[in-house]
Write a structure and sequence with these properties.
The protein is an alpha/beta fold. It has 2 domains: 2-112, Rossmann fold, CATH 3.40.50.720; 121-273 and 309-333, Dihydrodipicolinate Reductase, domain 2, CATH 3.30.360.10. The protein is 40% helix and 21% strand. It is built from 13 helices and 13 strands. It has helices at residues 10-20, 35-45, 53-57, 73-83, 97-107, 124-134, 156-161, 165-181, 198-202, 274-277, 279-294, 303-322, 328-333; strands spanning 2-6, 27-31, 48-49, 63-66, 87-90, 114-117, 141-149, 185-193, 208-215, 220-226, 234-241, 245-248, 326-327. A 7-stranded mixed β-sheet has the order 12-11-7-10-9-8-13. A 6-stranded parallel β-sheet has the order 3-2-1-4-5-6, sandwiched between helices. Strand 11 and strand 12 form a beta hairpin. Helix 4 runs parallel beside helix 5 (97-107) and helix 5 (97-107) runs antiparallel to helix 12.
Amino acid sequence: MRIGILGLGRIGAFHAETLSGLDTVESLVVSDPFTDAAKAAAERFDAEVADSPEAVLAAGVDGVVIAAATDAHPGLILACVEAGVPVFCEKPVARTMAEGVEVLKAVEGRDVPIQIGYNRRFDAGFVAAREAVRGGELGKLHTVRSTTLDPAPPPAAYIAASGGIFRDCSVHDFDIIRWVTGREVTEVYAVGGNRGADYIKEAGDADTTGAILTLDDGTIAVVSNSRHNARGYDVRMEIHGFTDSLAVGLEDKLPLRSVEPGATFPAGTPHDFFMDRFTAAYRAELTAFTEVVAGSRLSPCTVADALEAGWIADACTLSLHEHRPVTIEEVRQA
């Protein structure tokens, strides 16, 4: 199988490394506006360099991985679909929901598969949680808690273009809550604060947020996010039902310190970055994409799936700025 990669920044280079280690991938064709990045990846992974996305598509690739800047996502997705080449694109589909909806309209009814990158769907813990919930092991749910805490904020340039913490960070929590529970969010209420880097506040964003989501069956989900977690990269979920409760992420690399007398948990070196925490999940995600390319599997995360998490993020952003509950239907109709 021959796979093209568009964008060789941090995540693109990481995907190139992962793909080069898959038995089903025979060769890579890489392209990046910064030619040095493409050349470095080519040398490292014995890949072919193409000077443009069009050249990648013309190079006989079986599938394309898009890891370019967000603004480029819509055009690159549509170019792949027009060329009849299966495509994997890192989230989000587009910078705004309006653009994302236009992409969805443009690809509806097309036979070319599109997979959007939400890696937590491939993490062993979240997979087991979904199976337990869907299998009825917890009974009827009443509470879900989801946490994503970054060890340090990203650069100012990233913050300025990210769309805000709910769209670039919390959206992973929103997607995994939907995926694990099988329920839709109907209403949100969000709060936020700025206790750290001034450039985040200057960009009109919060560095620490909390959101309460009401699901369509009455389950309450509580989402906690921060750009500042000095102990490491913390991603967890708790799911509480009337029969049982479970947790994802309670393992020895959990970046949390217990002060209970005699407690030794967690005993490992804390996770310090998302690539460390989700290495196996990324490998499983891209393995799934090769199966999508081969036609043996349907897309495990479609454009429509990704937009649902985006609506929740937009609702939380509006709630934060206007200090009120916001329904998902309100932002859909805006």
